[in-house]
Amino acid sequence: MAVLDISQLDVRFDTPDGQIHAVRGVNLTIEAGECLGVVGESGSGKSQSFLAAMGLLARNGTAKGSVKLDGQEILNLPIGQLNALRGQSMTMIFQDPLTALTPHLRIGEQMAEVLSVHAGINGRAARSRSLEWLDKVRMPDAARRLGQFPHELSGGQRQRVMIAMAMLMQPRLLIADEPTTALDVTVQAEILDLMADLQRSENTAIALITHDMGVVARMCDRIEVMRHGSYVESGKADDIFYHPQHTYTRTLLDAMPRLDTPVAPPSRQTTPPIMTAKGIKVHFPIRLPGGLFGRRGVVRAVDGVDLEIRAGETLGLVGESGCGKSTLARALLQLIPTTAGQVTWMGKTLTNRRAAELKSCRQDLQIVFQDPVASLDPRMTIAASIAEPLLTHEPDLSPDARRGKVRDMLERVGLDHAMQNRYPHELSGGQNQRVGIARAMITRPKMIVCDEAVSALDVSVQAQILELLKDLRREFDMSMIFISHDLSVVREVADRIMVLYLGRPVEIAPRDQIFDHAQHPYTQSLISAVPVPDPRAERSRTRLKLPGELPSVMTQGSQLRFLPSRAEQLEYEPALQEVSPGHWVAEHDPIDTILAPEQIR
Amino acid sequence: MFRFILNRLIYAVPTMLVMIVACFVLMHVAPGGPFTSERPLPPQVLANIEARYGLDQPYWKQLWDYIANIVLRFDFGPSFQYKDRDVNDVIAQGFPITLTYGVLSFIAATTIGISLGLLAALRQNTLADYLAVGFSFVAQVLPNFVMGPILILIFTLHLGWLPGGGWYGGQWQYLIMPVIALSTSYMASIARITRSSMLEVLNSNFIRTAKAKGLPTHRIVVQHALKPAMLPVVSYLSPVFVYVITGSVFVDIYFSTGGLGQAYVNSALNRDYSVLLGTTILYGGLTIFFNLVTDLLYAWLDPKIRY
């Protein structure tokens, strides 16, 4: 008998704008010990069908049909009976581990209450069982974590807590809703490995809901592809990947940027540099506890970066969260003040200038942000947002000419100009990002920074926006700084790539050099953590796993993680060395030395 | 934590000084003085009186003496209005009264307000919710100076159940109406804040996690939702507490309770410099103190806040 058997599930939401039919007659089964991948883009109803099964629909949602857990009908059960099952036989973990745990309860308390409610286990017994599971999810320093609050843990650690908490009662079914989407690639790789191990050792059935075909390829036995509330295709992982039947499945697979397909060669050869930066440092003062009025501390967000961007070139900036890539980009544009160093733009120094002097350069230096909706003024129509830079930089333009320019730009970024009087909340994420790009492009800049500009978008939309950026770059002959945590996306657009680690570059090289001959262990581990949407390749890949967690910039000597031989010299800064023309690598020890765990501490 | 408290107490000193100086300056900038009246006093008499209270000294000297007396002898000076009474007497007489009905009003406003808000949030879009929201809506627009006469009209003049005023050592009959009058509108605000913040918390991701863990509803509300939902309520409570325990001039007038609120307003009207300054310092000190209490409550409600 299947662990979970969903048939003819229908989910509807009553909204002030009428009824939304989110899930339309879905059927699926999951067997014990199986991992089922549920794939689809946002709004496809993939999460809602499982939230309905768990009885977690929003108040305005209603579900019809049948959901059987081990043969027992569970859809729309009274809350008392449902509570005996959820947390016990079926459990769920969520996308955002930062908000999924109760902020004011200690990890130990949150885990123990599951045991208390479902098994009547309290006190010391509950503690030792919680500890046992924290160890099983490979939580570093597990005993101490029990007494900590969620905010004291990193995102990856919190997701481990969620998994441990979900596994406490050894459930038959674990539903994982985008469990790794909010995490860095290296952390994602570890969490996925962990889930695969648990699936095997505990024989737990896993429903893995995700938009990422790479994750599915790595984890799943069977796949269901969802679109607009119904399933379009289902089958064995290999069949879906190698012989997709439905056009939508093929579109999804094609849209996915991947590390194992050839990309167009870098656009051009050496042109003169238009922006140079030397010794850029951005330090933020913070207050630490201690002393009567607190101590002052410094976060070295960016700590000594040299770079050069040539005309028409795209530089990719990659690194994990907190590595300073956004801070660096903002410092280059002088959106935040630099602590030290000099930025030169077309022969002019940008650093230490007054705002008014910078204004004339702003026309040529624009930026597109990650969150397309939040970065537009919600009270301005999109045409007004796009036209605003013109008011500053071309004040003499007549209103008619300005409107004409906005209309042309809207069309250029693929938006119908009939949309110009709409507000950001009336557009989709992809459309809003097109507006953001139009706003940045309206002054015809010579350089544009894309700060995680496609990270919040669905794969098919992401592919379209990347295409648009590439076209615009060619047409306007722009330089670009492309920031992303997603290496497969960076590979699509960048000519050269800089890998940042805790505010310092560890490797800079032409794109193919980075992906084919990465020298630095950190770069290698990043690349090896990226899942590839190819199940056979995924099964045979071996990953380079660095021991331990990503240290904080505040930890002394954290820059020496790859240079344990110098661990005694806390202030030592690994220097960049040129290993081949244009390929710079930070000083590091041989990989075997770094992997030996006793060397790390 | 101890450091934080000490730190805040140290900062309180300059804050109080600035407040005293500002109040002193404003008082003296305003035309007239404590002994100005419709029939002017003979100049010689006025000069004598002013000399007795030190008003003939230069302003900086007056201010200096005033602060020095407080710091050295905890003496806030004599009242300019009531002969043979000094500021400490005025406060000692009025403050216990306002403190009594203030604290009771505060307890009524918070317990009933929070309960109503929670009830409304947990029974969202049911009759209980509509009734609670409806009550808050009406009560919100009934500040104490409107409630006072209405209560007297109903319970004293019409029904004859309760005495219309007086204090008599704070017997319960004399307390009921002042407490209702003072607490109603705060109760309504607290109910509304509690309701909306509880609804927001109940929609948050960690509540969904708690449900997915199969926890019973009462446990989710008490263990997971209550503390974070109280954060905005607590920030509203600190100023409310200061308002209610420093008393209301309207409550004192309508119910003849003889609290500090009336003395405060009278001192401003009469240019009773020392009483005005003294009560202002009391109010300022209480505000600073309860802001500190609020901050400590915050740290208890939210472990992310650590001092």
Could you provide a short overview of the structure?
The complex is a heterodimer of chains A (601) and B (307). Chain A is of the alpha/beta class and 601 residues long.
Tell the overall outline of chain B: flat
Judged by helices, strands and strand pairing, the structural class of chain A is alpha/beta
SSE-based structural type of chain B: mainly alpha
Radius of gyration of chain B: 24 Å
Order of helices and strands of chain B: HHHHHHHHHHHH
Domain count of chain A? 3
Total strand segments of chain B: 0
- Percentage of residues assigned to helices of chain A: 25-40%
Q: What share of residues of chain B is helical?
A: over 70%
User: Quick one: how many beta strands of chain A?
Assistant: 22
Structure description:
The complex is a heterodimer of chains A (601) and B (307). In chain A, β11 (273-288) and β12 (295-310) form a beta hairpin. An 8-stranded mixed β-sheet of chain A has the order 16-17-18-13-19-20-22-21, sandwiched between helices. Chain A has a 6-stranded mixed β-sheet with strand order 6-7-8-3-9-10, with helices on both faces. Chain A has a 4-stranded antiparallel β-sheet with strand order 2-1-4-5, with helices on one face. Chain A has 21 helices and 22 strands. Chain A is of the alpha/beta class. Chain A folds into 3 domains: 4-255, Rossmann fold, CATH 3.40.50.300; 274-364 and 445-599, P-loop containing nucleotide triphosphate hydrolases (Rossmann fold, 3-Layer(aba) Sandwich); 378-444, no CATH class. Helices cover 34% and strands 25% of the residues of chain A. Chain B is mostly helical. Chain B has a single domain (87-301), classed as Orthogonal Bundle (MetI-like fold). Chain B is 76% helix and 0% strand. Chain B has helices spanning 2-29, 43-52, 59-73, 87-122, 127-140, 144-158, 172-202, 205-212, 217-245, 249-255, 260-269, 273-301. In chain B, α1 packs antiparallel against α12 (273-301) and α11 (260-269) crosses α12. Chain B is flat. The termini of chain B are close together. The mean pLDDT of chain B is 86. The chains are: A alpha/beta (601), B mainly alpha (307). Chain A binds chain B through residues 54-56, 59, 79-80, 82-88, 91-92, 94, 96, 99-105, 113-114, 117-118, 149, 151, 162, 165, 289, 291-293, and chain B through 3, 6-7, 124, 204-206, 208-217, 219, 223-224, 227-228, 301-304, 306-307.
